[in-house]
Write a structure and sequence with these properties.
By secondary structure, this protein is α+β, with helices and mostly antiparallel strands. It has 3 domains: 9-176; 220-312, Helix Hairpins (Orthogonal Bundle); 318-462, Histidine kinase-like ATPase, C-terminal domain (Heat Shock Protein 90, 2-Layer Sandwich). 53% of the residues lie in helices and 14% in strands. It has a 5-stranded mixed beta sheet with strand order 6-8-9-11-10. Strands 1-4-3-2 form a 4-stranded antiparallel beta sheet. A two-stranded antiparallel sheet has the order 5-7. The longest helix is centred in the first third of the chain and has 51 residues, at 13-63.
């Protein structure tokens, strides 16, 4: 039972509210159906009672008349039936050669007429009732020409041996009335449910936006936008709390970045002084070691400053033709020590557009291409797109990266010790900077090992929702 409950219980707030609505609507529908059935059966009983009293009154009146009087009385009934558009008919008929059937309408009518006559102080007559359908043999008889089938036929024996026939069409039965009412209630419930679903969707959409912005904030706080403080009170309070948290964290990050940049700039001055005094250091081998250490410290400071700058930017995002942009970056990166080739590109007449910061995106692609050239001797860069995203793939044929380290290599200052050359002189910040630059463009960067060997870096950017241009 618990596993079944876990199976049908939705995970989202929208699904949970919708499930509650469906259960409530189902309970309401069940109550409505019960009420409709009760009302319809009660109404049908009242109509049947009125009809039975009327039939018994006509029978008792005709039972006291002779043949001529009966004929005149039946003509008046027929005239009143035509004026009031009553569907039933009375006439004197021959003795029936059939017995009553067990159909519930026939049984009810027979019992009700007998009880009504008996209540009037007369002996209960011989009453027979049956249903006639369009496929019954009577439907083809001339005497029933113009009658509406299906109909209820009732035969009542008079005291003088004659038989009074009552025919009542049943083109609209109680069951059909009940089901019409049920369908009406069902449509009413469906329309109500549709309206409620739309309203619930509108009410839960701010929560979805909050989740999206929280995810964006987790990837890159600078890329997260303030939420609109609208909607219900709880939604407004959650949006206000998120905006206050975002503002505080962004201020702390800005303060941290400013501190790192200030420290980097301040360290340049003592390093310059030490470099000026290198000429006084003897012997030469010791001086060269000091110079190498100073250059290494300067490289660490420069990449540390670049890492701090990669966490935020004031550059504006602009629409870009991503195919032309990648082609220009590949042309700028051509060099003698490695080969950079263009792979597959979208061939349609409307190339995909992205809204990105050109400098940030270019530095990210250049870092990846530089790594590919340094460690694999070359790279192939390609572009693929669909309705939602654009993917930039940078593939090489190098040694690759162990699967368990594909995410760890993005950590600042982390360097591979066996998979790639340890003496390259890098500080382990290139991939961190590249990912930060991609995050500033609302994208993602992942690394994957190719099945045939080598590494594949995939940059994914969202396609612009506006109309594309040729």
């Amino acid at each position: 039972m618990k596993s079944f409950c876990r199976l049908i219980r939705p995970d989202s707030l929208f699904g949970l509210i919708l499930l509650i609505l469906v259960l409530g609507a189902a309970a309401n529908q069940f109550i409505n159906f019960y009420a409709v059935c009760s009302i319809q059966h009660s109404y049908a009983g009242e109509v049947l009672g009125i009809g039975q009293d009327y039939v018994s009154s006509v029978y008792q009146a005709l039972n006291t008349m002779d043949g001529t009087q009966r004929g005149e009385y039946l003509k008046k009934l027929a005239a009143s039936r035509d004026t009031l558009r009553k569907p039933f008919r009375f006439r004197m008929a021959a003795a029936p050669d059939w017995q009553s059937e067990d159909y519930y309408k026939s049984v009810n009518m027979k019992r009700a007429i007998s009880e009504a006559v008996e209540a009037a102080g007369a002996a209960p007559p011989d009453v027979r009732a049956r249903m006639l359908w369009p496929e019954s043999p009577e439907a083809a008889l001339p005497e029933y020409d113009g009658y509406i089938f299906p109909m209820l036929q009732v035969m009542i024996r008079m005291d003088d041996g004659g038989w009074l026939e009552l025919t009542q069409p049943l083109s609209i039965t109680d069951n059909r009335l009940i089901w019409r009412q049920r369908i009406f209630v069902l449509l009413e419930s469906l329309i109500f449910s549709l309206i409620v679903i739309i309203l619930i969707r509108c009410a839960t959409r701010p929560i979805e936006r909050l989740a999206q912005e929280a995810e964006r904030f987790g990837r890159n706080p600078e890329a997260a936008r303030p939420l609109d403080e609208c909607g219900s009170r709880e939604i407004r309070e959650a949006a206000q709390s998120f905006n206050r948290m975002r503002a505080r964290i962004c201020d702390n990050l800005s303060e941290r970045n400013g501190m790192l940049e200030a420290m980097g700039h301040d360290l340049r001055t003592p390093l310059a002084r030490i470099q000026l005094r290198l000429g006084k250091i003897e012997p030469r081998e010791l001086r060269e070691k000091f110079a190498a250490n100073i250059e290494e410290i300067r490289s660490i400071i420069e990449q540390g400053l670049e890492l701090a700058r990669s966490l935020h930017t004031s550059e504006r995002a602009v629409p870009m033709d991503i195919v032309a942009f990648v082609e220009s970056v590949a042309d700028d990166m051509e060099r003698g020590e490695g080969e950079i080739r263009l792979g597959s590109l979208p061939e349609d007449d409307t190339p995909p557009l992205v809204c990105a910061r050109p400098t940030c995106l270019k530095r990210s692609i250049e870092n990846l291409l530089t790594n590919a050239v340094k460690y694999a001797g070359g790279a192939v860069i390609s572009v693929a797109s669909d309705r939602e995203n654009v993917s930039i793939r940078i593939e090489d044929e190098g040694p690759g990266i162990p699967e368990e380290l594909l995410e760890k290599v993005f950590e600042p200052y982390y360097r591979l010790e066996r998979s790639r050359n340890r003496e390259s002189g890098g500080t382990g910040l290139g991939l961190s900077i590249a990912r930060n630059m991609v995050l500033l463009n609302d994208g993602s960067l992942v690394l994957k090992n190719r099945p045939r060997g080598g590494l594949c870096a995939v940059i994914t950017l969202p396609v612009m929702k506006t109309k594309r241009r040729a």
